[in-house]
Amino acid sequence: MDLAAMNGHFDIVKFLHYRDNGPGCTTRAIDGAATYGHINIVQFLVANRSEGFTTLALRGAVQNGYSKIVEYLMHRPHEQTFDEYFIPIHRVECRQAAEGKDYLGVLKCLCQPSFPNICQYDMPHTADFCPMHCISEENIYAALKDNPIPTLEYVHQNNIIAIASSKMLEIVVKIGHAQSIRYVLEAIFRENDMPISLLDQDNAPDPWTPVNYDVTPCQHWSGSSPNYLSMLSLAVANGDFDTVKLLHRTGIKFSSYTAMDKAAEIGRLDIIKWLHTYRTEGCSFQAMPLAVKGGHKDVVKWFYEVKHFKCTANSLKNAIANGDITMLKFLISIPMTQWIHKRHYTSYPIAMDTAIYCGHLEMVEYLHKYRNGCCSDDAFSSAVYGNRLDILKYLVENNCLQGDIDYEILCINAAGGNVDMLMYCVDHFPIELEAESKQRMMYKAICRGLLNNVKWLYEVKGFEWIDEMIEAAIERRHEKIIDYLYSTGDPQVGVFDDCLYMFE
């Protein structure tokens, strides 16, 4: 009944309730139904069952914006307090009601002067208790995102949170609602005796710092008073060019080089050029690698041509990880930092290892043919784990390895992948497998449920199986493997290697 209630299956809930000697339910039934917005089930269970509910019911309804459920539960006593959500067996993807979400309505419920049970939910009984203690930053954020201007007006009129504060500006900039941002900035200007007309002028006034008012009268939000420095970066991260320009016109001190870094990361060359023209913070040495990571070649070229940035190891690594040969060629063509120039980064194993780990065969070929690249034994393991037989074949056929490699370990790892990879490793690597390795390979294939691998190892290569292996198949319910092993006859008499558990 608990799961039926959580998922909104009212007919099942009623069926189980009216059934003689039915399974019953626990407090999790109402807690879950309230959390996921099923008010009809909440009302039914409260009226007809005696199990009650816990603090989780109200908390869940508040978090998900079900104002009618919040209002319904506010005046009803709960059973006990819980600090955690549902136990793991109930932590499932429940069906959440699409209708009835009203985050502003939740705020209004929490701000009602007569709220007899609110102290029991989240706050101790104190003489100076304030209902606003129950409102979190998440509640404000959700309400603003759902219904921006009415929410701002409500929280302003009821003094829930200081509108003229860096915290409120941070919230509305993150949401990216233009009218809300303007509303908060006007409030900040009024509180600091600055003319609002400055917001509509092209030229910014002399830099100034607003007074940062307390977020709430109760000051209960931890870490809730950020400064204004990061606001420009937040707007850039959203790609909100209009807000970037508006924040600049305020004249407020936004001293943060991360703004241009963020613009480089998302590939907004227009914002980068504007910041370069009208702001003085510049950017960090990570701006160019971030642009490379995003595949923004126009931005990378701009940093080189205008800012005279050199190629760094991080830039090369990001281009290789993306498999972007065009970007890599450009980076190689420009001046490099002294460290890279001396060490020839692209010919080192780390370069090809990165390309192999990320699965870029064309990049591997380019590094080998044109940059004299080689790889380490880790690259072979990456190809096997990633089931990239094409890459593994290229490494073997072109002798790309620098150093020694444990072919036996590769064969064991291949047993847990596709059968083509397994066949290639066993047939082409110059190794005579030990008996323990054969046992580990069969065990790994059985544990992974890879019937084709098991058949090939047994029928073609003559690998045997022992009792412990079929026990592993039974434990994991690999029915086809169980049937196959029994069809081959009796198991081999052998000693089970305790180290097999490491190769599951």
From TrEMBL:
Pfam families per record: Ank_2 (PF12796)
Superkingdom of source: Eukaryota
Entries under SUPFAM superfamilies matching the protein: Ankyrin repeat
Gene3D superfamilies the UniProt entry points to: Ankyrin repeat-containing domain
InterPro entries listed in its UniProt record: Ankyrin_rpt (IPR002110), Ankyrin_rpt-contain_sf (IPR036770), SecEffector_AnkRepeat (IPR052050)
Entry-linked PANTHER family: ANKYRIN REPEAT-CONTAINING PROTEIN
Protein name, entry field: Uncharacterized protein
Species the sequence originates in: Thraustotheca clavata
